[in-house]
């Protein structure tokens, strides 16, 4: 199947290359590696009030589709050409979403998301030049089932003993359309980032700095330790992120406010049983720490997330059991506590608690094909105002997702 996919997907490119360099078609195909994912997702939500669905409908059902395909062609011993194509949203490289409640079927766009050259001619060093994913803790460079942040620039990685150093500069990004900054960030604003990663025994450490022109500068520090104690597997992690906004930023952030998000993660696996507990909190002045809620610096649940919420605490608890080698059942509970906030004596947010809880069944039919189904309840306190009074908003939440990888 993979050989067939290679031939069918890159035949046109290979023929063009053959005409230009007189290289046999069969030889050109040998130097191309194709990988990717095909994802279908159905989301279904039904709330008491339409505040949860962009003011349109209390009930919301969406069909989501995305295909991501990456082709790597070896140019010579030192250079590899990398391209990535997305069948989905041309705007943010994410799903194409079709409203099953009020809309009709539609078609997806095909777009070129990545096209860059990777140079490995220097020992222990990789340099990527061109249009590529933004590989930082604040963004998501590649995602099978979500949007992606991309940009044009140069990224360099080099290994020095147990330490990996990274540096990147991008003069153009899609942050104006993808992630939490869409509509506020300009796509022509430069991004500069630098980082260091190291593995010391069972502990992985990383530290990064990023500057987004005219918007903010930010740093993050992370650590993750994994221990395999025969029948018991234990993981302990922590991450702290701070962001300082520029005076003239367009994100709507007061440059005098401190924005930070800190989280601690614990994981335990004993035989067929597993448990995860995550706890995070944000600064009293601001909680924006990620450009995408799914990024490492964020803390994402299902319908409840911590990133961008000031003066809040977030608890995530998950208990699972591996019923069969191919089937895992888990129970998930997430609770976000938001403290009361005021400005010049005027209350801008009441004390409130948002919760979600759901059951999930993960099924892996084969190494390259699987999915999950989840169903639960979400409760948002003081979610909207009616006749001058704050009202809660409760609803059911469900999802079906299927993924094929090749």
Q: Name the average pLDDT.
A: 90
Number of helices: 2
The low-confidence parts are 1-19
Structural class: mainly beta
InterPro entries: Campylo_MOMP, Porin_dom_sf
Pfam family, one: Campylo_MOMP
Organism: Halarcobacter bivalviorum
Signal peptide: 1-22
How would you explain this protein's 3D organization?
The protein is mostly beta strands and 406 residues long. The protein has one domain (31-405): Porin (Beta Barrel). The protein is 6% helix and 59% strand. The chain has helices at 2-21, 25-30, and strands at residues 32-47, 59-74, 79-88, 96-99, 109-119, 125-133, 150-160, 163-173, 191-200, 203-212, 216-229, 232-245, 259-270, 273-282, 312-324, 327-338, 341-343, 346-349, 352-366, 369-386, 389-405. It has an 18-stranded antiparallel beta barrel. Strand 20 and strand 21 form a beta hairpin. Mean pLDDT is 90; it is low at 1-19.
What is the gist of this entry?
The chain has 406 residues and is mainly β. Helix content is 6%, strand content 59%.
Secondary structure: elements and pairs:
Blueprint (H helix, E strand, L loop, with lengths): L1 H20 L3 H6 L1 E16 L11 E16 L4 E10 L7 E4 L9 E11 L5 E9 L16 E11 L2 E11 L17 E10 L2 E10 L3 E14 L2 E14 L13 E12 L2 E10 L29 E13 L2 E12 L2 E3 L2 E4 L2 E15 L2 E18 L2 E17 L1
Antiparallel strand pairs: 1-2, 1-21, 2-3, 2-4, 3-5, 5-6, 6-7, 7-8, 8-9, 9-10, 10-11, 11-12, 12-13, 13-14, 14-15, 15-16, 16-19, 17-18, 19-20, 20-21
């Amino acid at each position: 199947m993979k050989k067939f996919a290679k031939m069918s997907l890159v035949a046109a490119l290979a023929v063009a290359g053959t005409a230009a360099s007189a290289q046999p078609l069969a030889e050109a195909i040998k130097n191309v590696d194709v990988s990717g994912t095909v994802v279908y997702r159905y989301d279904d939500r039904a709330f008491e009030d339409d505040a949860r669905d962009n003011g349109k409908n209390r009930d919301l059902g969406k069909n989501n589709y995305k295909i991501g395909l990456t082709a790597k062609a070896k140019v010579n011993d030192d250079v590899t050409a990398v391209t990535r194509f997305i069948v989905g949203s041309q705007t943010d490289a994410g799903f194409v979403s079709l409203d099953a409640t009020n809309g009709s079927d539609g078609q997806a766009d095909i777009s070129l998301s990545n096209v860059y050259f990777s140079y490995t001619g220097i020992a222990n060093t990789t340099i990527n030049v061109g249009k590529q994913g933004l590989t930082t803790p604040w963004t998501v460079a590649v995602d099978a089932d979500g949007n992606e942040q991309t940009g044009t620039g140069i990224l360099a990685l080099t290994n020095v003993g147990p330490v990996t150093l990274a540096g990147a500069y991008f003069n153009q990004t899609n942050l104006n359309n993808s992630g939490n900054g869409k509509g506020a960030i300009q796509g022509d604003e430069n991004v500069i980032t630098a980082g260091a990663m190291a593995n010391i025994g069972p502990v992985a450490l990383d530290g990064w700095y990023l500057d987004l022109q005219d918007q903010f500068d930010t740093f993050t520090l992370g650590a993750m330790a994994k221990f395999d104690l025969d029948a018991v597997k234990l993981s302990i992690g922590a991450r702290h992120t701070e962001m300082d906004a520029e005076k003239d930023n367009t994100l709507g952030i007061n440059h005098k406010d401190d924005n930070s998000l800190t989280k601690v993660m614990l994981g335990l696996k004993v035989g067929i049983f597993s448990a995860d507990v995550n706890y995070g909190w944000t600064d009293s002045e601001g909680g924006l720490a990620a450009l995408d809620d799914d990024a490492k610096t964020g803390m994402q649940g299902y319908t409840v997330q911590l990133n961008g919420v000031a003066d809040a605490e977030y608890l995530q608890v998950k208990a699972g059991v591996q019923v069969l080698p191919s089937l895992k059942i888990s129970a998930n509970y997430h609770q976000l506590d938001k403290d009361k906030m005021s400005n010049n004596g005027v209350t801008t947010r009441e004390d409130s608690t948002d919760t979600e809880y759901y059951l999930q069944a993960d099924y892996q039919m084969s190494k390259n094909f699987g999915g999950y189904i989840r169903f639960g309840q979400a409760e948002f306190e003081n979610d909207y105002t009616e006749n001058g009074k704050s009202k809660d908003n409760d609803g059911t939440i469900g999802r079906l997702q299927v993924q094929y990888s090749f």
